[in-house]
Amino acid sequence: MTPVTVRVPAKVNLQLAVGPLRDDGFHDLANVFHAVSLFDEVTASPADSLTLRVEGESIEGVPTGDDNLAARAARLLAQQLGVPAHAALTIRKNIPVAGGMAGGSADAAAALVACARLWGADVDLRPLAARLGSDVPFALLGGTAIGTGRGEVLTPVQVSGRFHWVFALADGGLSTPAVYAECDRLREARGERPGPPQASPDLMAALAAGDAKALGAALANDLEPAALSLRPALRDTLEAGRAFGALGALVSGSGPTCAFLADSADHAESLVAALTEAGVARSVVAAHGPVPGATVL
């Protein structure tokens, strides 16, 4: 057996509509996922046991034990196939850690694909992905899609052209459960009773038309007030991006990464330079989307 390397993208949530808390502790969502060109790579190599190594910058906080989602993915697949979970996994991180861009879920999806290829298995990975987490199925799919249920039920979305993005990466992360809990607390304090979440027709039309200006106006994230409550400094980051001409700005997912839509690749590069100079983020990077999901290299 030869090693298998899989490249997998980060995601930005173009819309994250959060419904009321369910009895199982999750929320119903209308989650418009968009895969962007920030990639992790996961390599699965032959081994006599399951091992894990994580490489890259700013990887503090990435679990390297049994609770790592990529390792859990390998064990789940092995259990499903009835084979030993023997693989040496190497994760090369480029997606921000705990940044609201689903890096851990992306690594789990990549591990499923890499181990399936390493072990010679031809199996539908989507049900296993859904068992691992709400964002894992989209990392397999890529492109742009609406996630319903708790985000794992995917419907691909028609997109014309390419969109250009800038991501401002913050120091430290935000706990996704903590952000959802803060969202519930803020809603209760305001007496809000959210209804069933739905994808925005304006957002769908902008994607189909490839209209960046209309897309920027339609970006929305119900978790953003909670992320700003827990990390008030993100307001300065969002305001700076808007002041520098971003077509749209929002906190990505549960944060703390802030996403800015540009009108061109050149505009994206100028936003990177301006936000870097302003000092409102740990680092700033440009990317584009949509891009494919987990892909064997």
TrEMBL record:
<feature type="active site">
    <location>
        <position position="11"/>
    </location>
</feature>
<keyword id="KW-0808">Transferase</keyword>
<feature type="active site">
    <location>
        <position position="135"/>
    </location>
</feature>
<dbReference type="GO" id="GO:0019288">
    <property type="term" value="P:isopentenyl diphosphate biosynthetic process, methylerythritol 4-phosphate pathway"/>
</dbReference>
<dbReference type="Pfam" id="PF00288">
    <property type="entry name" value="GHMP_kinases_N"/>
</dbReference>
<keyword id="KW-0067">ATP-binding</keyword>
<feature type="binding site">
    <location>
        <begin position="96"/>
        <end position="106"/>
    </location>
    <ligand>
        <name>ATP</name>
    </ligand>
</feature>
<dbReference type="Pfam" id="PF08544">
    <property type="entry name" value="GHMP_kinases_C"/>
</dbReference>
<dbReference type="InterPro" id="IPR013750">
    <property type="entry name" value="GHMP_kinase_C_dom"/>
</dbReference>
<dbReference type="InterPro" id="IPR020568">
    <property type="entry name" value="Ribosomal_Su5_D2-typ_SF"/>
</dbReference>
<protein>
    <recommendedName>
        <fullName>4-diphosphocytidyl-2-C-methyl-D-erythritol kinase</fullName>
        <ecNumber>2.7.1.148</ecNumber>
    </recommendedName>
</protein>
<dbReference type="GO" id="GO:0050515">
    <property type="term" value="F:4-(cytidine 5'-diphospho)-2-C-methyl-D-erythritol kinase activity"/>
</dbReference>
<dbReference type="InterPro" id="IPR006204">
    <property type="entry name" value="GHMP_kinase_N_dom"/>
</dbReference>
<feature type="domain" description="GHMP kinase N-terminal">
    <location>
        <begin position="68"/>
        <end position="143"/>
    </location>
</feature>
<comment type="function">
    <text>Catalyzes the phosphorylation of the position 2 hydroxy group of 4-diphosphocytidyl-2C-methyl-D-erythritol.</text>
</comment>
<dbReference type="InterPro" id="IPR036554">
    <property type="entry name" value="GHMP_kinase_C_sf"/>
</dbReference>
<comment type="pathway">
    <text>Isoprenoid biosynthesis; isopentenyl diphosphate biosynthesis via DXP pathway; isopentenyl diphosphate from 1-deoxy-D-xylulose 5-phosphate: step 3/6.</text>
</comment>
<keyword id="KW-0547">Nucleotide-binding</keyword>
<dbReference type="GO" id="GO:0005524">
    <property type="term" value="F:ATP binding"/>
</dbReference>
<dbReference type="InterPro" id="IPR014721">
    <property type="entry name" value="Ribsml_uS5_D2-typ_fold_subgr"/>
</dbReference>
<feature type="domain" description="GHMP kinase C-terminal">
    <location>
        <begin position="203"/>
        <end position="280"/>
    </location>
</feature>
<dbReference type="GO" id="GO:0016114">
    <property type="term" value="P:terpenoid biosynthetic process"/>
</dbReference>
<dbReference type="InterPro" id="IPR004424">
    <property type="entry name" value="IspE"/>
</dbReference>
<keyword id="KW-0414">Isoprene biosynthesis</keyword>
<comment type="similarity">
    <text>Belongs to the GHMP kinase family. IspE subfamily.</text>
</comment>
<keyword id="KW-0418">Kinase</keyword>
